[in-house]
Amino acid sequence: MASTKPGERKLQILQTLAAMLENPKGEKITTAALAARLEVSEAALYRHFASKAQMFEGLIEFIESSVFGLINQISEQQTDGLLQAQAIAQMLLNFAEKNPGMTRVLTGDALVNEDERLQLRMNQLAERLEMAFRQSLRLAASQGNFPENEAAARASLLCSFILGRWLRFAKTGFKYLPGDQAQLQIAILLR
Hints:
The chain has 191 residues and is mostly helical. The chain is built from nine helices and no strands. It is elongated, with a radius of gyration of 18 Å. Residues 7-67 form the HTH tetR-type domain. InterPro entries: Homeodomain-like_sf, HTH-type_Tx_Regulator, HTH_TetR, SlmA-like_C, Tet_transcr_reg_TetR-rel_C_sf. Keywords: DNA-binding.
Protein backbone atom coordinates (compact mmCIF):
# COMPACT_ATOMS: atom_id res chain seq x y z
CA MET A 1 0.00 0.00 0.00
CA ALA A 2 3.03 2.29 0.20
CA SER A 3 2.68 3.03 -3.53
CA THR A 4 -0.62 4.84 -2.96
CA LYS A 5 -0.39 8.54 -3.86
CA PRO A 6 -1.32 11.08 -1.12
CA GLY A 7 -4.52 12.21 -2.88
CA GLU A 8 -5.55 8.61 -3.44
CA ARG A 9 -4.88 7.71 0.20
CA LYS A 10 -6.98 10.67 1.36
CA LEU A 11 -9.85 9.53 -0.85
CA GLN A 12 -9.43 5.96 0.38
CA ILE A 13 -9.66 7.18 4.00
CA LEU A 14 -12.87 9.09 3.24
CA GLN A 15 -14.38 6.14 1.35
CA THR A 16 -13.58 3.81 4.23
CA LEU A 17 -15.05 6.25 6.74
CA ALA A 18 -18.24 6.47 4.66
CA ALA A 19 -18.38 2.66 4.44
CA MET A 20 -17.99 2.35 8.21
CA LEU A 21 -20.88 4.80 8.66
CA GLU A 22 -23.08 2.36 6.73
CA ASN A 23 -23.16 0.11 9.79
CA PRO A 24 -26.84 0.23 10.79
CA LYS A 25 -25.97 -0.05 14.49
CA GLY A 26 -24.23 3.30 14.18
CA GLU A 27 -21.37 2.64 16.57
CA LYS A 28 -18.97 5.48 17.29
CA ILE A 29 -16.15 5.50 14.78
CA THR A 30 -12.67 5.80 16.21
CA THR A 31 -9.47 6.59 14.38
CA ALA A 32 -8.10 3.28 15.69
CA ALA A 33 -10.96 1.35 14.04
CA LEU A 34 -10.58 3.35 10.84
CA ALA A 35 -6.82 2.73 10.77
CA ALA A 36 -7.37 -0.99 11.39
CA ARG A 37 -9.89 -1.18 8.54
CA LEU A 38 -7.36 0.49 6.24
CA GLU A 39 -4.52 -1.65 7.61
CA VAL A 40 -2.43 1.43 8.43
CA SER A 41 -1.33 3.11 11.66
CA GLU A 42 -3.28 5.95 13.22
CA ALA A 43 -0.23 8.10 12.53
CA ALA A 44 -0.71 7.38 8.82
CA LEU A 45 -4.25 8.80 9.06
CA TYR A 46 -2.95 11.93 10.73
CA ARG A 47 -0.49 12.50 7.88
CA HIS A 48 -3.53 13.16 5.68
CA PHE A 49 -5.97 14.69 8.17
CA ALA A 50 -5.14 16.71 11.28
CA SER A 51 -8.13 15.26 13.16
CA LYS A 52 -11.17 13.03 12.87
CA ALA A 53 -13.24 16.22 12.57
CA GLN A 54 -11.22 17.08 9.47
CA MET A 55 -12.06 13.64 8.03
CA PHE A 56 -15.76 14.35 8.55
CA GLU A 57 -15.25 17.78 6.97
CA GLY A 58 -13.86 15.97 3.92
CA LEU A 59 -17.06 13.92 3.70
CA ILE A 60 -19.18 17.04 4.13
CA GLU A 61 -17.25 18.80 1.35
CA PHE A 62 -17.90 15.81 -0.91
CA ILE A 63 -21.61 15.90 -0.05
CA GLU A 64 -21.85 19.65 -0.62
CA SER A 65 -20.02 19.64 -3.95
CA SER A 66 -22.02 16.64 -5.21
CA VAL A 67 -25.44 17.85 -4.10
CA PHE A 68 -25.08 21.50 -5.07
CA GLY A 69 -23.39 20.59 -8.35
CA LEU A 70 -26.44 18.46 -9.20
CA ILE A 71 -28.85 21.19 -8.04
CA ASN A 72 -27.10 23.67 -10.36
CA GLN A 73 -27.40 21.21 -13.27
CA ILE A 74 -31.09 20.68 -12.59
CA SER A 75 -31.69 24.44 -12.33
CA GLU A 76 -29.92 25.07 -15.64
CA GLN A 77 -31.65 22.25 -17.51
CA GLN A 78 -35.19 22.54 -16.14
CA THR A 79 -37.02 25.82 -16.74
CA ASP A 80 -40.33 24.76 -15.16
CA GLY A 81 -40.17 25.71 -11.47
CA LEU A 82 -42.34 22.85 -10.20
CA LEU A 83 -40.46 20.24 -12.20
CA GLN A 84 -37.20 21.78 -11.00
CA ALA A 85 -38.27 21.44 -7.33
CA GLN A 86 -39.47 17.87 -7.93
CA ALA A 87 -36.19 16.92 -9.62
CA ILE A 88 -34.12 18.44 -6.80
CA ALA A 89 -36.18 16.61 -4.16
CA GLN A 90 -35.90 13.29 -6.00
CA MET A 91 -32.15 13.76 -6.49
CA LEU A 92 -31.66 14.43 -2.75
CA LEU A 93 -33.55 11.25 -1.87
CA ASN A 94 -31.62 9.23 -4.46
CA PHE A 95 -28.30 10.61 -3.17
CA ALA A 96 -29.15 9.41 0.34
CA GLU A 97 -30.26 6.01 -0.91
CA LYS A 98 -27.01 5.51 -2.83
CA ASN A 99 -24.88 6.81 0.06
CA PRO A 100 -26.29 5.43 3.32
CA GLY A 101 -23.16 6.26 5.34
CA MET A 102 -23.27 9.85 4.16
CA THR A 103 -26.96 9.98 5.07
CA ARG A 104 -25.86 9.53 8.70
CA VAL A 105 -23.69 12.63 8.21
CA LEU A 106 -26.56 14.53 6.53
CA THR A 107 -28.86 13.82 9.48
CA GLY A 108 -26.17 14.66 12.02
CA ASP A 109 -26.44 11.14 13.46
CA ALA A 110 -22.75 10.41 12.80
CA LEU A 111 -21.71 13.78 14.23
CA VAL A 112 -23.23 13.45 17.71
CA ASN A 113 -19.97 13.18 19.66
CA GLU A 114 -17.85 15.10 17.18
CA ASP A 115 -16.84 18.77 16.95
CA GLU A 116 -19.96 20.97 17.10
CA ARG A 117 -18.84 22.96 14.06
CA LEU A 118 -19.60 19.87 11.94
CA GLN A 119 -23.27 19.92 13.00
CA LEU A 120 -23.38 23.67 12.37
CA ARG A 121 -22.12 23.00 8.86
CA MET A 122 -24.84 20.41 8.27
CA ASN A 123 -27.42 22.94 9.53
CA GLN A 124 -26.08 25.42 6.97
CA LEU A 125 -26.38 22.75 4.27
CA ALA A 126 -30.05 22.27 5.18
CA GLU A 127 -30.59 26.04 4.97
CA ARG A 128 -28.95 26.12 1.55
CA LEU A 129 -31.20 23.27 0.39
CA GLU A 130 -34.27 25.17 1.54
CA MET A 131 -32.99 28.24 -0.32
CA ALA A 132 -32.62 26.15 -3.50
CA PHE A 133 -36.21 24.93 -3.11
CA ARG A 134 -37.34 28.53 -2.48
CA GLN A 135 -35.73 29.67 -5.74
CA SER A 136 -37.41 26.89 -7.72
CA LEU A 137 -40.76 27.52 -6.08
CA ARG A 138 -40.57 31.29 -6.62
CA LEU A 139 -40.05 30.46 -10.28
CA ALA A 140 -43.07 28.12 -10.12
CA ALA A 141 -45.15 30.91 -8.53
CA SER A 142 -44.06 33.36 -11.24
CA GLN A 143 -45.23 30.75 -13.76
CA GLY A 144 -48.71 30.83 -12.18
CA ASN A 145 -48.64 27.54 -10.27
CA PHE A 146 -49.59 29.06 -6.89
CA PRO A 147 -49.53 32.45 -5.11
CA GLU A 148 -46.08 34.02 -4.64
CA ASN A 149 -46.51 34.22 -0.86
CA GLU A 150 -46.65 30.40 -0.65
CA ALA A 151 -43.17 29.77 -2.10
CA ALA A 152 -41.25 30.05 1.18
CA ALA A 153 -43.73 27.89 3.12
CA ARG A 154 -43.72 25.24 0.39
CA ALA A 155 -39.90 25.27 0.30
CA SER A 156 -39.76 24.77 4.07
CA LEU A 157 -42.27 21.92 3.87
CA LEU A 158 -40.38 20.23 1.05
CA CYS A 159 -37.06 20.56 2.89
CA SER A 160 -38.63 19.13 6.06
CA PHE A 161 -39.96 16.21 4.03
CA ILE A 162 -36.46 15.47 2.64
CA LEU A 163 -34.82 15.72 6.07
CA GLY A 164 -37.51 13.46 7.51
CA ARG A 165 -36.99 10.82 4.82
CA TRP A 166 -33.23 10.91 5.41
CA LEU A 167 -33.72 10.57 9.15
CA ARG A 168 -36.15 7.66 8.79
CA PHE A 169 -33.69 5.93 6.45
CA ALA A 170 -30.79 6.34 8.90
CA LYS A 171 -32.76 5.57 12.08
CA THR A 172 -34.24 2.35 10.67
CA GLY A 173 -30.83 0.95 9.80
CA PHE A 174 -31.42 1.81 6.12
CA LYS A 175 -34.55 -0.37 6.00
CA TYR A 176 -36.98 2.28 4.71
CA LEU A 177 -35.64 3.70 1.47
CA PRO A 178 -36.01 7.47 1.10
CA GLY A 179 -37.38 7.14 -2.43
CA ASP A 180 -40.27 4.78 -1.59
CA GLN A 181 -43.46 6.45 -2.90
CA ALA A 182 -41.57 9.74 -2.90
CA GLN A 183 -42.63 10.83 -6.37
CA LEU A 184 -46.31 10.78 -5.41
CA GLN A 185 -45.64 12.38 -2.01
CA ILE A 186 -43.60 15.19 -3.56
CA ALA A 187 -46.35 15.79 -6.11
CA ILE A 188 -48.90 16.02 -3.27
CA LEU A 189 -46.71 18.52 -1.40
CA LEU A 190 -46.40 20.69 -4.50
CA ARG A 191 -50.08 20.75 -5.51
